[in-house]
Design goal:
Mean pLDDT: 86
Strand order of the largest sheet: 1-3-2-5-6
CATH class of the largest domain: Alpha Beta
Number of strands: 17
Shape: globular
Radius of gyration: 24 Å
CATH architecture of the largest domain: 3-Layer(aba) Sandwich
CATH topology of the largest domain: Glutaredoxin
Structural class: alpha/beta
CATH superfamily of the largest domain: Glutaredoxin
Distance between the termini: 34 Å
Largest sheet: 5 strands, mixed
Number of domains: 3
Helix content: 25-40%
Length: about 375
């Protein structure tokens, strides 16, 4: 199909360890094709990616507005490892050097890729014309509202950068000038309106020009501590590269979910960033349950998936025992869970005179690495049973 396109017009930037940070940090939006020359799907994507770049360059001629780039993962394995690339080709979106957690999974066509970039360039913030619009917000969503004296300000530009990154997780709104004056009693103001009609608002109290501070605050509000894993977002979550601590519960068992959320917040907030806290529908995820010799009748069940093996929290009723859930996670990090599955309890955990049991079986294999296999990519992951 390459004759259909004109590669001589293409402006695809080849990235390497010497230029990648400079190019991505200076790009408003960058779409990067991580590929391998030997991969048939990579070869098929090249002319499509190049033509999509040509189309977008016509609409966004400034070289820093949109960058189309590529990384040869065989030649630059250090970059592939840095961004946890395990499938070829993978299209990752970057904003001002920051990689977005949701990669491009749309159609591999010129039109679809061009439309995706146009969508990424659209304004993620809805400007309100009357504060009455705020009172009628959809309170099933997470809303971030910024009140600014003027749009042309450093405060708003920082808010806009944050919204560009997190608009998939929250609804962003803004009000300016006289419309926002009632909410600017102490200057420009940003407020989080959490889900729930009666949930109290939360006010951002830090500097509005400090991107790192406001981004961290907004991310904490927009991304729940405990997220639901589904077949739609499973691959995306595995690509974050963190092991899973999962509560399997029946869909209508909200009490167990609430207990799990409370204990994660109470015991494991310091572990955020080292493990992903998730919950899953027992009926939908029967296959992972079978890996740990459980069925929906056994739910609620708590387990860790390390991406190598799965480990079961001994007893859900122990969830509220102070420190018990945290120790389960710490035992994963220390290697104790894996070690004890192979060799029985550590010597320090064995009563005097009791022999150490040598277990012949291995812990169940990971069941989440291949949640949403792609039909259009070659994967480096080990083949597993289909879910």
């Amino acid at each position: 199909v390459s004759w259909l396109f004109n590669p001589t017009r293409s402006e695809i930037t080849s990235l390497d360890s010497g230029n990648i940070d400079d190019i991505l940090n200076n790009a408003d939006v960058a779409l990067v094709n991580f590929y391998a020359d030997w991969c048939r799907f990579s070869q098929m994507l090249h002319p499509i990616f190049e033509e999509a770049s040509n189309v977008i360059k016509e609409e966004y001629p400034d070289k820093n507005q949109v960058v189309f780039a590529r990384v040869d993962c065989d030649q630059h394995s250090d970059i592939a490892q840095r961004y946890r690339i395990s499938k070829y080709p993978t299209l990752k979106l970057f904003r001002n050097g920051m990689m977005m957690k949701r990669e491009y999974r749309g159609q591999r066509s010129v039109t679809a890729i061009a439309d995706y970039i146009r969508q990424q360039k659209s304004n993620p913030i809805r400007e309100v014309q009357d504060l009455e619009e705020i009172s009628s917000l959809d309170r099933s969503r997470r809303n971030i509202v910024g009140y600014f004296e003027q749009k042309d300000s450093d405060n708003y530009r920082t808010f806009e950068r944050v919204a560009n990154i997190l608009h998939d997780d929250c609804v962003f709104l803004s009000a300016f000038g006289a419309i926002s004056k009632a909410e600017r009693f102490s200057g420009d103001n940003v407020i989080y309106k959490p889900p729930g009609e009666n949930a109290p608002d939360m006010v951002y109290l830090g500097s509005l020009t400090n991107f790192d501070l406001i981004y961290a605050w907004t991310q904490d509000k927009c991304v729940p501590l405990v997220r639901e894993i589904t077949f739609e977002n499973g691959e995306e979550l595995t690509e974050e590269g963190l092991p899973f601590l999962i509560l399997f519960h029946m869909k209508d068992d909200l009490e167990s979910l609430e207990r799990f959320q409370q204990e994660v917040a109470r015991q494991l907030i310091s572990e955020k960033g080292t493990i992903n806290f998730l919950h899953a529908d027992c009926d939908k995820f029967r296959h992972p349950l079978l890996h740990i010799q459980k069925t929906p009748a056994d739910c609620p069940v708590i387990a860790i998936d390390s991406f190598r093996h799965m480990y079961v929290f001994p007893d859900f009723s122990d969830l509220s025992v102070p420190g018990k859930l945290k120790q389960f996670v710490l035992d994963l990090h220390s290697g104790k869970l894996h070690r004890e599955f192979h060799h029985g309890p550590d010597p320090t955990d064995v009563a005097p005179g009791q022999p150490i049991q040598d277990l012949a079986s291995s812990p169940p294999e990971s069941s989440f690495q291949k949640l949403a296999p792609s039909e259009h990519r070659y994967t480096l992951l080990r083949e597993k049973d289909e879910l």
